[in-house]
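testing teh design pipeline on a random one, pls ignore if ur not involved
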């Protein structure tokens, strides 16, 4: 009888441990300074988690398929190799990763390259960054993509908190300069053809214009801070907790404004996500509704409505589950909705097959066709991409259902190798994979000022 009771007790303890492993925390890292190691909670040995995290970091920064390249004695860039350029997306991601890992030399090299080649030091765009450059620093476009500035500012604040401002770079002053430059200001654009970043969509005529990273009416981040792109937003640019970082340590006199931006950003996410699937479009209007672009008018041949692929869940959209996980971990200000969202979007991808779900869908969960499918690296093809495997796994931080472990296991076991047709994305897939491992191991943190 005693043996039977002991067996039941051990089973109860095991069950309690399992329940604990799948229970999201309800207090924020801003409040507690603590982070979950979801991998360990789900049974992976701590030493193996540390080793795997180091391996994934090295894949991005030091391995044979690295995307980080040093230039001379003091600079470096991160390259989207398949597109032969350096982007503010990758450069600012590199800065965030470097400060999280305490890699000051990497951080400083990337910042020096960004400032020298990407950041406008004068003129209409002062303080903003050219979103795409050749790897020799030549601009492919002068315009900015707003997510780059979002990450640059936050990473610089963290660098200031971690290393201080007297080791060769005044990180806080650099962050404050960008914070000041992104405030609404008037400018006169030069006449030129449309292109991504400033004049996206074409047809822009010279004359006084307003430039702003954050739309002053809605308090939401723009797709680009000028031209056509400031008329709408990109859901994957919304990381409300970053604004809370700015409010706490930006010291720019705008703390209340940034907290309002965080609140508005969380409200916006409720509007842009499909209620059934949890999917969102790559781009959308400030009210969360779908894009109604004049570049997609009329009907297709055969009389069917022409679809706007920007309304589909695709490459940019992959980041949203991970961004919501970050906001949940750091702030937890919208915890109830984010927990529901995390399970909703995992349920959708689970329904598509944990090892077979595709990387692009319409918001209703149907599969896009033809030119709706966004190409990459010379291919226009739907795949089971490791970047999306990574971000859906990161969503497990918010989830309590058993499926969350299957997503974590899928990421742990996934191999970042070329597809059979030769397609391989060391850059975007690699960076999202690394971010997800940081989240799930408890190593993507709010960096507070050094004591």
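output:
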């Amino acid at each position: 009888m005693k043996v039977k009771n002991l067996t039941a007790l051990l089973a109860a303890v095991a069950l309690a441990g399992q329940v604990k492993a799948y229970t999201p925390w309800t207090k924020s890292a801003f409040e507690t300074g603590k982070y979950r190691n979801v991998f360990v909670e789900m049974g992976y040995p701590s030493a193996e988690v540390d080793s795997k995290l180091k391996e994934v970091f090295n894949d991005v920064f030091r391995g044979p398929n690295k995307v980080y390249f040093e230039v001379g004695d003091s600079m470096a860039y991160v390259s989207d190799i398949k597109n032969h350029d350096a982007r503010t997306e990758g450069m600012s991601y590199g800065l965030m990763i470097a400060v999280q890992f305490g890699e000051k030399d990497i951080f400083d090299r990337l910042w020096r390259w960004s400032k020298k080649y990407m950041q406008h030091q004068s003129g209409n765009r002062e303080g903003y960054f050219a979103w795409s450059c050749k790897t020799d620093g030549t601009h492919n476009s002068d315009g900015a993509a707003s997510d780059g500035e979002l990450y640059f500012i936050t990473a610089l604040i963290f660098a200031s908190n971690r290393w201080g401002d007297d080791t060769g770079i005044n990180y806080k002053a650099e962050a404050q300069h960008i914070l000041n430059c992104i405030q609404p200001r008037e400018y006169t654009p030069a006449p030129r053809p449309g292109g991504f970043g400033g004049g996206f969509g074409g047809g822009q005529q010279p004359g006084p214009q307003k430039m702003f990273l954050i739309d002053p009416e809605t308090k939401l981040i723009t797709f680009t801070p000028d031209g056509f792109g400031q008329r709408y937003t990109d859901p994957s640019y919304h990381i409300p907790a970053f604004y809370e970082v700015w409010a706490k340590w930006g010291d720019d006199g705008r703390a209340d404004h940034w907290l309002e931006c965080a609140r508005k950003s969380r409200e916006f996410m409720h509007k842009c996500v499909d209620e059934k699937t949890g999917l969102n479009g790559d781009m959308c209007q400030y009210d969360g509704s779908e894009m109604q672009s004049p570049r997609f008018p009329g009907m297709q041949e055969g009389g069917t409505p022409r679809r706007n692929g920007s309304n589909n869940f695709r490459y940019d959209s992959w980041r949203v589950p991970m961004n919501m996980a970050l906001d949940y971990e750091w702030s937890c200000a919208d915890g109830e909705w984010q927990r529901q969202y995390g399970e909703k979007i995992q349920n959708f991808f689970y329904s598509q097959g944990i090892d077979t779900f595709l990387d692009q869908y319409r918001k209703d969960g149907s599969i896009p066709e033809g030119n709706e499918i966004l190409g990459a690296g010379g291919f226009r093809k739907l795949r089971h991409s490791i970047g999306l495997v990574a971000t859906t796994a990161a969503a497990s931080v918010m989830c309590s259902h058993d499926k969350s472990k299957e997503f974590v296991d899928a990421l742990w076991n996934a191999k970042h190798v070329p597809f059979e047709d030769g397609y391989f994305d060391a850059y975007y897939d690699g960076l999202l994979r690394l971010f997800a491992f940081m989240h799930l191991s408890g190593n993507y943190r709010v960096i507070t000022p050094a004591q």
